[in-house]
Known about the structure:
By secondary structure, the chain is mainly α. Among the domains are: about 10-45, no CATH class; about 80-140, no CATH class. About 65% of the residues lie in helices and about 0% in strands. The chain has helices spanning about 10-15, 20-30, 30-45, 55-70, 80-95, 110-120, 125-130, 130-140. α2 (about 20-30) packs across α3 (about 30-45). The protein is elongated, with a radius of gyration of 37 Å. The N and C termini lie far apart (about 100 Å).
Amino acid sequence: MKTEHLTNDELDLLLLGEEVATATAEHARACLVCRRRVEEWRRAMTQPLGADPTPATRRQVREAALAAWAAPRPRRRPVWWWAAAAALVVALSLPLLRWGGGGGGEVDAVAVLAEVEALLAADPVDAAFPPDLVTALAAEPEGNGAGSTS
Length: 150
């Protein structure tokens, strides 16, 4: 008699009524676990799939699906946010590109990091954006009514 349980292939052959080895058939009759597996599969294959839904149920499902489709989508980040993030990445990588055309030698990572840190230490805003843009964005609007700190 077989000591291991039925494999999926052996179970499939039994369910289809195909020829199986004598030891396999004996094990399927004697082993409680395998017998239950065979019975559960036979029960699942012979159970009716169920009746078609009623017209009212179909209408409810259709209305629910249409309502879910028409529901507002979750808000996504605006396009300008992604463009600003990409511009920042490009701007911060520009100093690294300066060394790119110099003969294809190895890059001195310590020197690169030292230059980046020096550039950011001087003024991180100027390192990322042109000075005229910084001046235009940082200028106070005239006649804002607030006290000046100058």
